[in-house]
Automatic annotation (TrEMBL):
The gene is rlmC. Its EC number is 2.1.1.189. InterPro entries: 23SrRNA_MeTrfase_RlmC (IPR011825), MeTrfase_TrmA_AS (IPR030390), MeTrfase_TrmA_CS (IPR030391), SAM-dependent_MTases_sf (IPR029063), U5_MeTrfase_fam (IPR010280). It comes from Siccibacter turicensis. GO terms for molecular function: 4 iron, 4 sulfur cluster binding; iron ion binding; rRNA (uridine-C5-)-methyltransferase activity. Keywords: 4Fe-4S, Iron, Iron-sulfur, Metal-binding, Methyltransferase, rRNA processing, S-adenosyl-L-methionine, Transferase. Signal peptide: none annotated. Belongs to the class I-like SAM-binding methyltransferase superfamily. RNA M5U methyltransferase family. RlmC subfamily. Coiled coil: none annotated. This is 23S rRNA (uracil(747)-C(5))-methyltransferase RlmC. It catalyses: uridine(747) in 23S rRNA + S-adenosyl-L-methionine = 5-methyluridine(747) in 23S rRNA + S-adenosyl-L-homocysteine + H(+). Catalyzes the formation of 5-methyl-uridine at position 747 (m5U747) in 23S rRNA. It is an enzyme of class 2 (transferase). HAMAP family: 23SrRNA_methyltr_RlmC. [4Fe-4S] cluster binds at C3, C11, C14, C87.
Length: 375
């Protein structure tokens, strides 16, 4: 993939961009084999990849520059801004939105936040697109509510120019730190979520809930999990760290009981809505801490699905699973190192199947799906 930003030395986020995709996949598979060297694996499945460019459904842009000439992108450690609106990882549909947002910022009087001076209001722009219908969600991250009414007043013109912006919010992040969003979300549109669909499963994208950024590879990941699980004798499953319910909703059948646990209430609202659309009745999604929920139970289901953040599931949950002994564990990880550590703390389980999903081309990162069976 060619990238003018990389060639000019302005952005080095895609550190592996000069390697062919085949070489990238081989290096990732080698890394995964090394991390699981102490774990006997019955079957290594072929890695799954997707497009090498224009694959992202989300842009997270630091806003810098001036109100008349804002820049969308990132800041180097020395504070130098880089405009990333031409990043080839974004689809072509993002370009007209970025172009319209720059004069909109001037009309709304949203002064970009200056980190060094601790002045200004506009910190970030977060743009997400649905692959189902091209609808978009725009989140404007502000330091305070001081410019909120100006933002509201300028919105009708922006919406007329960009009708694909279905969901628009203002997020308030008052802390002088590199934190992407704050706790307060203010909806500026009637519509509060974007409809998405992977493999015939309706999903919903909302503010403050995690959603995979590579739809093609994410759909393959969910479909693979579904195929693996439906070959097992599962009547009751837990989906821990469930997010918007992608794994559980793909794997569940009308005859199966599904319990989904996720700390983010917005994600649980999305999962609950999807379950109702699918006609799944024996489904229970709750906004709780996954480890606290699990370790408080007296019995486990047939299958426990875990999709934790990069830190992994941790010693406490591993010890609980060892003690309660569910027949199957399906582990999806964005950090194979922490997954390998967790599997090391699950000595009573055998890794029967492992598959790598190249969710993050041109970087060393990847997703991995592992099916563990009780010995």
């Amino acid at each position: 993939m060619h990238c003018a930003l990389y060639d000019a030395g302005r952005c080095r986020s895609c550190q592996w961009i000069e390697q062919p995709m085949e070489a990238q996949l081989a290096a990732k598979m080698n890394d995964l084999h090394q991390l699981l060297a102490e774990v006997p694996v019955d079957q290594w499945c072929a890695p799954v990849s997707g497009p090498e460019q224009a694959f992202r459904n989300k842009a997270k842009m630091v806003v810098s520059g001036s109100v008349e000439k804002p820049l969308f992108g990132m800041l180097h450690r020395d504070g130098t801004p880089v405009d990333l609106t031409d990043c080839p990882l974004y689809p072509a549909s993002f370009a007209p939105v970025f172009a319209a947002l720059k004069p909109f910022i001037a009309r709304a009087g949203l002064t970009p936040y200056n980190v060094a001076r601790k002045r200004g209001e506009l910190k970030y722009l977060l743009l997400t697109e649905s692959q189902q219908d091209g609808g978009m969600m725009l989140r404007v991250v502000l330091r305070s509510e001081a410019k909120l009414e100006q933002l509201r007043a300028a919105l009708p013109g922006l919406q007329a120019e960009l009708p694909q912006l279905r969901v628009i919010t203002a997020n308030i992040q008052p802390v002088h730190m590199a934190i992407m969003e704050g706790e307060q979300e203010i909806w500026l549109t009637e519509q509060r979520s974007l409809a998405e669909n992977f493999n015939g499963v309706p999903l919903w994208i909302r503010p403050q809930s995690f959603f995979q950024t590579n739809p093609v590879v994410a759909a393959a990941l969910y479909a693979t999990a579904r195929d693996w699980v439906r070959a097992l004798p599962v009547k009751h499953m837990w989906d821990l760290f469930c997010g918007v319910g992608g794994f559980g909703l793909h794997c569940a059948t009308p005859e199966m009981r599904l319990t989904g646990i996720e700390i983010a209430s917005e994600a649980i609202a999305s999962a609950t809505q999807s379950a109702a659309m699918l006609g799944l009745h024996d489904v229970h999604f709750q906004a709780l801490d996954s480890t606290q929920f699990a370790t408080a139970q007296d019995a486990t289901p047939d299958l426990v699905v875990v999709n934790p953040p990069r830190r992994g599931i941790g010693r406490a949950l591993c010890e609980y699973l060892n003690r309660m002994a569910p027949p199957y564990i399906l582990y999806s990880s964005c950090n194979a190192r922490s997954m390998a550590d967790d599997i090391g703390h699950l000595p009573d389980y055998q890794a029967v199947r492992v598959q790598l999903f190249d969710m993050f081309p041109h970087t060393a990162h990847y997703e991995v799906l592992t099916l563990l069976v009780r010995k």
